[in-house]
C-alpha cells in the first residue's frame, strides 16, 4: 500500500487547525507542504510561520517541498520550522550535491523534485545520495491540474533504475492524483501519493484518504 501525503495547498486555510486534526485522525502518514516563492514558480503559497504552526499540530511526517530559488539560504530555517523531509528542485540547484549534503547534515531526509519536462537520466548521479524523488505530474505552481500521462513512463523508468541499483529511494507522485488513477500510478511503481483536491475537496476527506491508502 502506498504512503498517502495530503497536500495542504488545497486545504481550507480559514480552518487550518481543523484540517490538521482531520489528517491526524486519518490514515495519511505524511503532511505534504508546498512552499512557492513566485520566482521559481508563478505563484506564492506559504512559508516558515505556517509550517511552524502545522508542526505543532502533528507527530506525523512533515514533507516539505521547496519550489523556490536559492533554497540553500533557507534549509536550516525549514529544519527549525519542523521539516522531516526536505525536497529541492533539480532545476533550481546548480550545486545539487551541496544542497543535499546540507539537508542531510541537519538530520532531515533529502528529496529531489523534478519538473514534468526533466528527464529521469538527470537523476542518475544523485540517486544514491537521496531518500525521495518527487516526480511532478503537473506543471508546478498550482493545484487542481490534470495528471500528465507520460509521468507513468517516467515512474517505470525510475523504478527500474532504483531496483537495479538496490536503492531505498521512495518515488513520490505530485499532481493530479485521483481515486480513479491511483491504482495505475502505484502499479507503475510509485511509493507515495500526494493528493490535494482529491482529499480536501471531497465530501468525506478521511474516506478519500482511506481509499487512496487501500490502492494496490
From TrEMBL:
PROSITE patterns recorded: RIBUL_P_3_EPIMER_1, RIBUL_P_3_EPIMER_2
Manner of cofactor binding, per the entry note: Binds 1 divalent metal cation per subunit.
One cellular component term from this protein's GO annotations in UniProt: cytoplasm
Binding site for a divalent metal cation: 32, 34, 65, 174
Keywords in alphabetical order: Carbohydrate metabolism, Cobalt, Isomerase, Manganese, Metal-binding, Zinc
Record-linked InterPro entries: Aldolase_TIM, Ribul_P_3_epim, Ribul_P_3_epim-like, RibuloseP-bd_barrel
Pfam families named in the record: Ribul_P_3_epim
Binding site for substrate: 7, 65, 141-144, 174-176, 196-197
Gene Ontology MF, one: metal ion binding
Cofactor(s), by name: Co(2+); Mn(2+); Zn(2+); Fe(2+)
Superkingdom of the organism of origin: Bacteria
Pathway: Carbohydrate degradation
Reactions this protein catalyses: D-ribulose 5-phosphate = D-xylulose 5-phosphate
EC numbers for this chain: 5.1.3.1
Alphabetical GO biological process terms: pentose catabolic process; pentose-phosphate shunt
Active-site residues, as the UniProt record annotates them: 34, 174
Job of this protein: Catalyzes the reversible epimerization of D-ribulose 5-phosphate to D-xylulose 5-phosphate.
Family membership noted in the UniProt record: Belongs to the ribulose-phosphate 3-epimerase family.
Protein name as it appears in the record: Ribulose-phosphate 3-epimerase
Gene transcribed to yield this protein: rpe
Amino acid at each position: 500500500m502506498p504512503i498517502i501525503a495530503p497536500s495542504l495547498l488545497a486545504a481550507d486555510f480559514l480552518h487550518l487547525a481543523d484540517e490538521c486534526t482531520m489528517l491526524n485522525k486519518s490514515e495519511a502518514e505524511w503532511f505534504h507542504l508546498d512552499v512557492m516563492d513566485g520566482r521559481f514558480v508563478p505563484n506564492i503559497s506559504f512559508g516558515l510561520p505556517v509550517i511552524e504552526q502545522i508542526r505543532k499540530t502533528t507527530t506525523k511526517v512533515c514533507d516539505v517541498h521547496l519550489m523556490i530559488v536559492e533554497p540553500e539560504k533557507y534549509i536550516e530555517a525549514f529544519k527549525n520550522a519542523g521539516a522531516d523531509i526536505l525536497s529541492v528542485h533539480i532545476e533550481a540547484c546548480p550545486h545539487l550535491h551541496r544542497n543535499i549534503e546540507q539537508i542531510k547534515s541537519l538530520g532531515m531526509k533529502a528529496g529531489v523534485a523534478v519538473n514534468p519536462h526533466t528527464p529521469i537520466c538527470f537523476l542518475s548521479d544523485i540517486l544514491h545520495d537521496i531518500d525521495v524523488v518527487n516526480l511532478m505530474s503537473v506543471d508546478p505552481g498550482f493545484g487542481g491540474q490534470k495528471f500528465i500521462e507520460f509521468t507513468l513512463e517516467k515512474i517505470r523508468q525510475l523504478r527500474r533504475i532504483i531496483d537495479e541499483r538496490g536503492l531505498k529511494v521512495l518515488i513520490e507522485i505530485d499532481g493530479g492524483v485521483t481515486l480513479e488513477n491511483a491504482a495505475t500510478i502505484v502499479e507503475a511503481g510509485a511509493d507515495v501519493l500526494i493528493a490535494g483536491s482529491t482529499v480536501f475537496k471531497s465530501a468525506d476527506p478521511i474516506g478519500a484518504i482511506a481509499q487512496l491508502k487501500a490502492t494496490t
